[in-house]
Amino acid sequence: MVDRFRKQSGASLPKRMGRMKLYYLPFWRFTSQVFCAIFREPDLSSVLEAPDQEGRTDKILSRDWDLNFSAHRSNDLGIATLGMRPDWLELRILTRQDRLEQRGEVLSVETDSSAVRERALESVCFFMERKKEPGDELILRLLEEHTSLIYFPLWVADFVAPEGEFFHVIDGVTKRTLKEGKGCFESRPGHFKGKDKSDQLSILPHRCPNCGWDLPVRAFHVVFPCSNCRRLWKLEEGRYRQVRGEVVKPAIDSEINSSRPATYYPFWVFEIKLGQGKSTSIGEMSELLPSEIGLFQAKNKSQPFLFYVPAFELRNLSKVPDIGRAFVCNQPDLKRERANRHNLKGVFISEVDAKKLAEILWLSLIWRRASLGSNAPIGPTFERGRILWCPFVQEGTFLRDAVVGYSFQKVG
After folding, report:
1. What is the mean pLDDT of residues 224-249?
2. Which of 107, 257, 281, 330 is least surrounded, with the fewest CB atoms within 10 Å of its CB?
3. Could you report the per-residue pLDDT of 54-63, keeping only the tens digit for each?
4. What's the predicted TM-score (pTM) here?
5. Beta partners for 123?
């Protein structure tokens, strides 16, 4: 590899190869789902003339965000980022660092993990700022945040050429030269005084804490139903915590039959509280935001106003707010029932992240009123979170819910 690089660059070939050593360079990796709400100031003159004719002035963007950068500073190895998506690499779980140290030198982590999110947020803001027009308001929410370390292999080769001594830094994956320097490479020890330590992996028995029954093994799920005692368990901070869950009966039973079976998709459902006191009712919300929300299906306006956040896996993230808003703006009358647990789709989003997305949906409802200087309720709290499985039927490549009739492209 050294010969090839120097030949292509027109330099003389090495007369003698010296020490060759493997190093592992640590990189911080930050992944999340980004939801960005862009709110545009309305034209006041047109609003005053025809307030009911004005279209929506908000836009919600979304994308997966995957950022990485070097966590080591003491040695300049000519690589600031991995230069590729980590998903393309063959990654393995590292439980003990001394296993790497048996192969080569592991360079120290010299950047606080607390700075990882700040850097990622700066990167997201820089990217999303280009999506809006001057004067627009930008609001970001990061969901499913994960921070991890990747140790990347680099070879360092010392050699002697007619011009003197040099060293080469070679990417251990792509086999390309990253850097050439004069003299022999000397590793500088780091003097970082941070307190960061990698989380230790622990084994958690995947059994129901109540009855001891085996829970279903499903990758990336955060909620597991026990098929024996019918309880729902959420994995949280290394233990299982019981959560509330309900199943919705289809609004039209004739749509569900043997040829069109129902599949139940999960939503996080929250009651909303404005200020102090009890939860806000549907009637109170319709008086506060009559034009922003519209007509409701619910007949009993004294029921709590509910916010619905899709909790299932969806390839097209931009559809997530639309699905949630379809349920929020309808406030359907729901009837609960028991359903076959095998028909329940997995929960892919935590309650904390669901509340962040509920904030985006709330802002999209009140922004027009707030920008006009009207009395817009702000600062709500989302409480009494529970999981609700709603029935969906397949129609070609689309899925349509059997509650409010919203259709979207089938998930993977």
Report:
1. 84
2. 257
3. 444 456 777 7
4. 0.73
5. none
